[in-house]
């Protein structure tokens, strides 16, 4: 049993919030995977979700772009408010949500198309067809993902010709090409070697100037290095949410303390 | 670490197990090679024998003559034109229907008991004897719809026959596309149809094409259902041309024409006592194999062209 919850809401001053999670429950069929989560996502900051395997951190992340709608039997209860709108509302089209909140997955999953087409696809889906405009945005996105110099001379080549790290950066370029409000990262480096991991981390640091980032990671070091805020989840509940430095150095809960100091997890 | 150390006996034991495993491994390789040669040899022998027997008849005149009671005058013009028209009709019916049904069942259809029942039935339909389809077509297309003993009836019958094959291979091809790619497309804001049309379908099209070709190759060799619906065995005219000099230039009258097909022509010749006709049948067999190979070759070409666009 989890010890009693003190308010896991923001207990630190913040200026600018991008999104807010209010009383969120989530069910896979009959089993409740997210229990009464309340948290806020500060704008243009990196917020990390950490916790032991099966604690619901990826499930929570996938609520933000309504990924759970793809599979039958899933149910949300509560709200995620973005610009005054509850994006979990049934009246809100999940496609609209996904056009504003993009995602980078655990394993690089580029389309078996050219490097250019991979980045351009999101733009095309949104109806951008003018050749010049697409060219420009693709270049911008690839530069934003620190990939432009490596691929500018071979944009027509297959994305599968790239290394794993490059593929993941291509996926990031794909995710930022449409200027989303939030980019979700689901353990983006867990399939990568240390050097590729370092370059992705640099990139995330770079990106937070312009975009709000929510990142799930199983590596506490990564959360400590990268994030401004950290949420610690345990058994589907949000146990503690605070500035990363505070959460790692003076955790309010014993469990958080145990987890961040590596005693379990 | 004492338990890691082995006695000489254990070491020998391990070595002999290893050599036994290696022996079994190479034994299977040899067995496989033998079976492969046996299968190929029989096939090559059959085709060679047929080609030798039919060779004296294989000339331009054979391809451009109608059947005749004189074996030396008889040709396969009506038969190969008939086969071609029937296959084209089959293709235009079975491919859109089968691929669309496959997409629906795999991507849109639910996972309830009804979907399961449909799946089992479609799979079973692929194994129904072709003559049963012939009977169905005789009653439904020929009599009920009044389409008669026409190219259209034949095309529809064979389309029905190969639909399960096309549906099942389409579903399998779609299922093979990893969900990570689907999620990637959805995460960028694709609608379900965009996800299917821009991603899943192009990535799986090579495999779908293979299913279509397997189906069409089966259809082109079918005899029984076509005899059942009343294909002619002796025919001395061609269906009307699809292109006409007057407006509207395209005519579909050929769909209503009576017809025969290659396998029926072969069967007809084989069943005659005159050995000269056996040579005709063999020659027709060679042409039929050639037609099937051309069909396959075309599909492989298409698949190759298509896969160049997909950059795995």
Notable traits:
heterodimer; A: 265 residues; Rossmann fold; six-stranded mixed β-sheet; four-stranded antiparallel β-sheet; 10 helices; 10 strands; disordered N terminus; B: 312 residues; mainly alpha; MetI-like fold; globular
Structural summary, described in words:
The complex is a heterodimer of chains A (265) and B (312). Chain A is 34% helix and 25% strand. Chain A is α/β, with parallel strands linked by helices and 265 residues long. Chain A has a single domain, classed as Rossmann fold, CATH 3.40.50. In chain A, the strands form two sheets. Chain A has a six-stranded mixed sheet with strand order 6-7-8-3-9-10, with helices on both faces. In chain A, strands 2-1-4-5 form a four-stranded antiparallel sheet, with helices on one face. In chain A, helix 3 packs parallel to helix 6. The longest helix of chain A is centred in the middle third of the chain and has 14 residues. Chain A is globular, with a radius of gyration of 18 Å. The two termini of chain A are 16 Å apart. The N terminus of chain A is likely disordered. Chains A and B meet through helix 2, helix 3 and helix 6 of A and helix 7 and helix 8 of B.
